[in-house]
């Protein structure tokens, strides 16, 4: 049954994307930028609803009161494609730093550039990165939220931490709060797999780390806070969802923590 529900959800997920693009694209490009952002947010909400209806996967957001006003860096754990869109409805005006190649995709790239996302050539150095930071500073001054995954890429639940130092440099230069976010959607929407497992997970938005710390101290503080909260949330999520198959990384981490499930 889970296989059939997964197949059905994946099919409807892409149909939903195509249909909404066909219906809303004319309005999207005619509306003012921030008003138009409501269309991707509606798409995110509809995906979350479909995920619960078809796959039986639901979630809750805890700690939304920790989200500050104005510009800040939103720093979530990254385990699943769900992370890319799932929390859009909770953010006012988010902006991503993304591979410039994504902007070359017909229609999708136009959607991205309408929202003034920040494209970057990952192989470039020097002046290009200075331009990226200039753009990021402009967006922060406009009160937007910069989404950065501190570990850079998707990692399996329970995997050993691999936090990149780049976020510490951006924190130092932008001088805005950083909001850590922990969650384990990768148990239900695994990376590089089509399976979608039923269950319930929690997203925890932690108190922001205020600007002004030494970059090294900030980096270690971010790691310590996120990993401590992530470990406790992993234990809680697995206890509350005993039916979910665990990847080896999660099994190993639970053993290291001495968790009794």
Automatic annotation (TrEMBL):
Pathway(s) this gene product operates in, as recorded in its UniProt entry: Lipid metabolism
CDD domains noted in UniProt: LPLAT_AGPAT-like
Enzyme class: transferase
Any one GO molecular-function label of the UniProt entry: 1-acylglycerol-3-phosphate O-acyltransferase activity
Organism domain of life: Bacteria
GO biological process: phosphatidic acid biosynthetic process
Residue spans crossing the bilayer: 12-31
Entries under Pfam families matching the protein: Acyltransferase
SUPFAM superfamilies on file: Glycerol-3-phosphate (1)-acyltransferase
SMART domains the UniProt entry points to: PlsC
Family matches, as InterPro entries: Plipid/glycerol_acylTrfase
Assigned EC number: 2.3.1.51
Keywords recorded for this protein, A-Z: Acyltransferase, Membrane, Transferase, Transmembrane, Transmembrane helix
Stretches assigned to the Phospholipid/glycerol acyltransferase domain: 72-186
PANTHER family: 1-ACYL-SN-GLYCEROL-3-PHOSPHATE ACYLTRANSFERASE (PTHR10434:SF40)
Full protein name: 1-acyl-sn-glycerol-3-phosphate acyltransferase
Source organism (scientific name): Gellertiella hungarica
